[in-house]
Design brief:
single chain; 185 residues; alpha/beta; Rossmann fold; two-stranded antiparallel ribbon
Amino acid sequence: MNQVRLNAGVWRSRILKFPEAEGLRPTSDRVRQTLFNWLGQELAGKVCLDLFAGTGALGFEALSRNAKQVTMLELAKAPFQALLQNQRLLDATKADIRQADAMQFLAKNIQRYDVIFCDPPYRKQWLDKLLPVLAAHLASDGVLYVEAEYALKSNADWQVIKSGKAGQVFYHLLQAMPAAIKDTP
């Protein structure tokens, strides 16, 4: 089993174990630290969605920093089982972990989120499918965190408010433009 360490909060320095799986890339400590600096160290009251939870590092890190609730989606069986084991290890009662496809979940979901984490498998055109629908799932002041194999640029639907690059990973914090926000998901 591989492992990743949580950076801060109530579970600081706790280790999450996860299996090898195709397309599974844990968000590095440095990138997670930058992301949570952007979001603010304390996420009290925030409701989050982790679309491709994988190792659980982003979702469990948010919970460690007092997020109100995090829904974590993972379709692959082995990483999903590891998420459940880590949930039990941490006693993460505010984690709602589901074995689900991101697009199918979004098609049925009506909840809005303060933060959506989106780190999909690379080279599968996930962002082309997801970016047009994600604004409808954000709270009015919500933000979208995206990791990709390429840099994203602001457009009519999304404004890139922060971005960075670590190795081959481009990471971004986005806000939906008013025209992209629909009344209901």
